[in-house]
Amino acid sequence: MTVSENPADTRCSNDRALQRLYTADPVLVDVRPAIEALPGMTRDTVLVSGPPLPWSEYTGGQRRAILGGVVHEGLAADSDEAELLLSRGVVRVDGCHDFGCVGSVAGITTASMPVLVVEDAESGHRGHCTLFEGETRGRLNYGVFDPAVDANLRYLAEVIRPLLAAVVRASGGIPLKPIMERALRQGDELHSRTAASSLLFLRQIAPALLDLPPADARVLMAYLTAGDYFFLRPAMAASKSMADRMSGVRGSTVVTAMAFSCKEFGIRVAGLGNRWIRGPLPNVETSHFFPGFTRDDIEVMGGESVITEVCGLGAFAQANALSLQAYHGGSADSMIDRNLQMYEITAGEHPSFTLPVFGYRGSPAGIDVAKVAETGITPAMNVALAAKSGGQIGAGSFRAPLAPFARAAELLAASS
Amino acid sequence: MTVSENPADTRCSNDRALQRLYTADPVLVDVRPAIEALPGMTRDTVLVSGPPLPWSEYTGGQRRAILGGVVHEGLAADSDEAELLLSRGVVRVDGCHDFGCVGSVAGITTASMPVLVVEDAESGHRGHCTLFEGETRGRLNYGVFDPAVDANLRYLAEVIRPLLAAVVRASGGIPLKPIMERALRQGDELHSRTAASSLLFLRQIAPALLDLPPADARVLMAYLTAGDYFFLRPAMAASKSMADRMSGVRGSTVVTAMAFSCKEFGIRVAGLGNRWIRGPLPNVETSHFFPGFTRDDIEVMGGESVITEVCGLGAFAQANALSLQAYHGGSADSMIDRNLQMYEITAGEHPSFTLPVFGYRGSPAGIDVAKVAETGITPAMNVALAAKSGGQIGAGSFRAPLAPFARAAELLAASS
Fold it and tell me: What pLDDT score was predicted for residue A4?
């Protein structure tokens, strides 16, 4: 199937989109409450992962997380009141992506929550993402809301946000692309593995961190070094700012967003603007569980961290992060094969995001819906796994469904 | 060629040696002046890399570095006086290895120089190594001595040593093995690449570092984050403490040290104690140069960082650090092949130093002189390259000469 009457036109459009991706220069410029940072955000809005749905269609952990968000935000005294407000539309649910934001797992983003503000220095496009909740099993974005989760979110907003913002501003902004490029040579793929990038970030802010009052420096350092996942959120916000630059390029068949809710998977494509092309949830291709859990425990609660895959990271750079086989299952060879396969469905190779294992070849970047439709190969995605009972229980590699890519290719072909 | 009448005996001896390597638990416990830390050290001794030679046989950059060391130590006013004292034996030159120490490149270690003190918590064996001089081209260990090099060495001794020692002691010692294990999953092979381990070390000492007066914390942080090679020295000292544990195991054909001076390469073997078996210098197998330099500029000034290869690191774990192809030449495939080849000449596989690219197989560990002699395959070594004119000019992969391994195998066979 050809998308355009003239394939050369599509190639030009895709090259134009990819140039925007390649030249993007994401810089972390601030950390602000969502209400201040996100265009269009209101006090009574709860942003969530995935192509937006009516409130009634959110189920399981993502539904619980939305209710928790409403209570955390002080809009309702308890879950029952939150239900009422949501069903009456007094509190509305909307999609992160429409607010310049991406969500992790359930993706709950409410007005008072701190978001990382990443600006593409080339275009001014901004991407945002909330902060990592920490390594406890109980996290709002994994469908858990209780007093400990609530207190932790408050701690992030009241203690961590001002300190991190002060350090980021005092540093004059933190250029993220150099960190991302280096981290790819240090075993990160910048989605399921951010161990190196988290430490490279720490090194970058160290001078400003040491200018804080010592007690504050200790608090911030403890947060930043508590686990290996701090940098996932900067990587997500950076990816959002980069991917959004490609949006609206006429005739381009390149994907600008992938996201899923508890119910659906959806994509956006450069030549189709902000429209979501929806399909069924992804399949679990490989998985690995923390002790005591099995495949039967998995519940999909949403997720937009796959914006990293859209930019040639995550599963598209997994051959750089072979240690992940112990985290999300599979073998070194299968990870390398899966990574190579992604070259068959991408329109380009990222000149800065390189894969030493392939002789420094650029990572496959710019998922091309036409190539996906033609080959039947769909994007791989490295994801964390949530439990029906809430909390993270492991990690895995997902495969996107074919339908939305095929549909998008048809729509673009029809409109060309 | 069989080394022992009964190969099972050799196998048992090698297993015994390897158990000592595998169970070692190196901890950085202090940073002290060499005169205080190294058993047998005196004010008028200059320690250098390689099986020791008479003073008259040191040439080129290593000779210049020795003279610089004598002047730096205040034993002579200038190079001419240093020459005189050395030729008269008033100042003596000796090998680092005999003082529980390993040297980088020329390996100059004088009384006042700070050394990292690494103790194997299992056996009490200690290994030592001086501090990284920084990323300037002019470094004593690369054959350069001038007022800037002298001032930098003084800065390390007077400013950095006390601060680093305070932080290490306040931390109650820094266990190095967990850092090394993790770093291997983050793109380090812990010889030519220590980018991840240097940051993991920083994370480990962060709490103690923040307890320093802020001005001091800034100074130490600046030193630790100035480049990517801080951790090479802890890795070397740790490797020395681990390798020495294997020394003296009767009948074992496992190598406990490799080292070279400007003139010779030598090895020590567990079953032969502290005796050096000497041979010609290694060959350059791959190389890569900083702009403006070529293979003709290379001068070998010595080096004992190959103690890491003795422990299953460096070239023996290079498949974990494929980004090094851009630093020391070669391709991803040739690095993987060379790493696999090392399994043919080693007696074991390190249970803690693992290679995700080989499905978490343990790194080839315990170079077996009998296997080297039998196969003709000699150890690969990742090294930095020095220039005839002084300074680092690139990096490469060396191959050890066959002769000393063959000779050691003969000696062990004769003694069994």
Answer: 53
Tokens matching residue B245? 């544990």
Rounded (5°) CA angle B105-B110-B116: 75
A159 and A281 both lie in a single domain: no
CATH code where residue A281 lies: 3.90.1700.10
Which residues constitute the domain of residue B359?
A: 251-415
Cβ distance of B210 and A214 shorter than 8 Å = yes
Q: How many CB atoms lie within 10 A of CB A252?
A: 31
A356 touches chain B (CB under 8 A): yes
Instruction: Find, among A322, A309, A397, A307, the residue nearest to A358 by Cα.
Output: A322
Same domain membership, residue A215 and residue A68: yes
For residue A240, being part of any structural domain is answered with: no
Say whether residue B207 is in contact with chain A using an 8 A CB cutoff.
Answer: yes
What's the confidence (pLDDT) of residue B2?
46
Residue A182 and residue A88 in one domain? yes
d(CA B366, CA B24) in angstroms, rounded, equals 14
Q: Which tens digit of pLDDT belongs to each residue from A356-408? A: 999 999 999 999 999 999 999 999 999 999 999 999 999 999 999 999 999 99
Least confident piece of the model among A62-71, B82-91, B160-169, B392-401 = B392-401
Mean of pLDDT over chain A: 95
Claim to verify: residue B179 and residue B272 sit in the same structural domain:
no
pLDDT band at A2 (very low <50, low <70, confident <90, very high): very low
Distance from CA of B47 to the nearest CA of A (A): 34
Among partner residues B217, B221, B332, which is closest to A358 by beta-carbon distance?
B332
DSSP state, residue B132: P
- Asked if A221 and B199 come within 8 Å (Cβ–Cβ), the reply is no
Residues A306, A294 within the same domain: yes
Tell me how far apart the alpha carbons of residues B175 and B286 are, in angstroms, rounded to a whole number.
34
Residue A131 lies in a domain: yes
A86-100, B48-62, B128-142: the lowest-pLDDT one: B128-142
Number of domains in chain A: 2
- What is the interface pTM, i.e. ipTM, of the complex? 0.91
Q: Is residue B322 within 8 angstroms of chain A, CB to CB?
A: yes
Between chain A and chain B, the number of residue pairs with CB atoms below 8 A apart is: 86
| Cα Dmax for chain A | 64
CB B393 within 8 A of CB B290: yes
Contact A203 B206 (CB under 8 A): no
Residue of B nearest to A193 (CA): B186
- Interface probe, candidates B186, B188, B211, B353, chain A, greatest A C-beta count within 10 A: B186
The number of beta carbons lying within 10 Å of the beta carbon of residue B215 is 8
The reply to whether B266 and B399 lie within a common domain is yes
Q: CB A221 to CB B207 under 8 A?
A: yes
What digits encode the pLDDT tens for the residues B177-201?
Answer: 999 999 999 999 999 999 999 999 9
Q: Is A337 on the interface with B (CB under 8 A)?
A: no
For residue A100, the domain's CATH number is 3.90.1710.10
* Contact criterion met (CB < 8 Å) for B357 and A186: no
Helix (H, G, I), strand (E, B) or coil at B166: helix
> Does A325 contact chain B (CB < 8 Å)?
yes
